[in-house]
Amino acid sequence: MRHVAVIGSGPAGYYTAEGCAKLFGDQVLVDILDRLPVPYGLIRTGVAPDHQSIKAVSRRYEATALAENIRFVGNVTVGRDVTIAELLDLYDAVVLATGAPADRSLGIPGDDLLGVIGSAAFVGWYNGHPDFAGLKPSLHGDAVIVGAGNVALDVARILAKTADEFAGSDIVGHALDHLGDAAVGRVTILARRGPHQIAMTPKELGELGHLARAAPRVDPADLPPLDEDAALDPGTRKSVAQLRAFAGSDETKPVTIDFDFYAMPLRIEGKGRVERVIVERATTDATGQASGTGETYAIPASLVVSCIGYRTPPIDGVPYDGKLGRFANVDGRVGPGLYAVGWARRGPTGTIGTNRPDGFLIADHIAADTSDDTGKSGGAGLDRLLASRGVEVVTFGDWQKIEAAEIAAARAGSPREKFVAVEAMLAARG
């Protein structure tokens, strides 16, 4: 019997558990640890609340979680309740599936002003992550979003939507109420490079063209000559075609979503809180690298959301690559018995589905690196250790009670009303 501990219950964690179950059958016991009492990680607190079809993948993880040889061990913080060294003593393999939940810093003067928020925090706020439930972003005036990916589009869309447009979503009540009081007049999306270098997908871009009170706007001068689109991959070509459609529209609505390409944020200014972003006009070379031209201008802002990427927080005792913001590893191997998977392995790249082959790869590594019947105690030993330390463990059955309570508390048309405090989650178990 092999004993495997997976730290993190997001997509990478559950795909790793699924891979182990398929490879070893009933000759493996997998414990999936999470510091929160609720599973699914990025699916619950990262995917936009109005993208319920994407969140539905959690049903696949539920099927894995209900297998007899797979356990959810929630409300357990690695580093506080149990160390990596202790887990390695208890399990044949320990897999770091912690994702990349920390924001990359803008790294410019003024990025610490009140009103400057990373996308992990902002997305966590409207998705009900307990770490960010107390955030109260200023939504009066103009907002600036820094980034050229789908997260930037999510943030812009959430800021621009009306309350009615959130029907069917699981946006949390405190965010819905706060957004309902908003008076955002303009949302500016800053991209250092041009339309041909964006990481925005056609579907997410297209959603901006169907908002009730907001219209996207692209300066035609920022668009490269049409004949250059032929060299793009099909997905990017469709995205650029969508931007061209925005540039050709004369639709006006109360809120505008301005795409500002070739724009490098230099600094953020304000007395105590953000008031404006100073931007330098940029140009790109043949490889798409941006450089400043010396021309600067100011964009008024009461809110700045940085959507420039994420990093994996380090854990004591685990080799870490600070430059790449992830655990140091070779093809997922961190050290003897220790592995990294998903964003913790490769950095914040790829889609949710990219984590499935990643998880199965780690299962193959575990098969190659470990043997049966090593005598390690696995979950039984973990239970004894956590009990001796007074840790209140949450099981998958407990999570099902929490989920049922969230569903029962949902407003009309919403699939659930999430608990945003750990204490409330624990109490919901009954």
Structural topology:
Blueprint: E1 2-7, H1 11-24, E2 28-33, H2 42-45, H3 52-55, H4 58-65, E3 70-73, H5 84-90, E4 93-96, E5 102-103, E6 116-118, H6 119-127, E7 140-146, H7 150-160, H8 173-180, E8 183-190, H9 202-207, E9 214-218, H10 234-247, E10 255-260, E11 263-269, E12 276-284, E13 290-300, E14 303-306, E15 310-311, E16 320-321, E17 326-327, E18 333-335, E19 338-340, H11 343-346, H12 355-369, H13 378-388, H14 396-408, H15 422-427
How does this structure look, described?
- This protein is α/β, with parallel strands linked by helices and 430 residues long.
- Helix content is 31%, strand content 22%.
- α10 links the parallel β9 and β10.
- The chain is globular.
- The chain is built from 15 helices and 19 strands.
- The chain folds into 2 domains: 216 residues, Rossmann fold, CATH 3.40.50.720; 203 residues, FAD/NAD(P)-binding domain (3-Layer(bba) Sandwich), CATH 3.50.50.60.
- The longest helix has 15 residues.
- It has a 6-stranded mixed beta sheet, with helices on both faces. A 6-stranded parallel beta sheet has the order 6-14-7-8-10-9.
Summed up, what is this model?
Helix content is 31%, strand content 22%. The chain has 15 helices and 19 strands. The model has no long low-confidence stretch (mean pLDDT 94).
